Amino acid sequence: MTYLDWIQWPAMLVTVLAAWLIGSQRPARRMVGFVFFSVSNVLWVIWGVYAEAYALIVLQIFLFLMNLRGFKKNFKGQQN
Fold first, then answer.
1. Using N-to-C axis directions, what is the helix angle for 54-79 and 27-51, rounded to 10°?
2. The pLDDT value given to residue 1
3. Residue ranges of the domains in the chain?
4. pLDDT at residue 76 in the model
């Protein structure tokens, strides 16, 4: 098993942690959750390229765009 096979495990852990943070009542924790989701998107894309899982790569790109949208909305909510 190559080291790239192992990327799926940190990606999964970061995704779960991000989902937990997004559910927080605290805006700062939600912001960290969005950042963690973005990190997990990158990890999943790296693994997807290695595994030739092209649908996963496309999914992660769209999820990243939705996370970016959520990050911006949460950021605006903190400024008000």
1. 170
2. 63
3. 7-79
4. 79
Chunked mean pLDDT (size 10), the chain, 80 residues: 88 97 91 94 96 97 92 75
Q: What's the 3-state SS for the chain? A: CCHHHHHHHHHHHHHHHHHHHHCCCCHHHHHHHHHHHHHHHHHHHHHHHHHCCHHHHHHHHHHHHHHHHHHHHHHHHHHC
What does the pLDDT read at residue 18? 96
Give the chain's length.
80
- Tokens 């595994």 -> residue: 51
Q: How far apart are CA 34 and CA 52, in angstroms?
A: 26
Name the residue among 57, 34, 53, 35 with its Cα closest to residue 45. Answer: 57
Are 45 and 26 in contact, with CB atoms under 8 Å apart? no
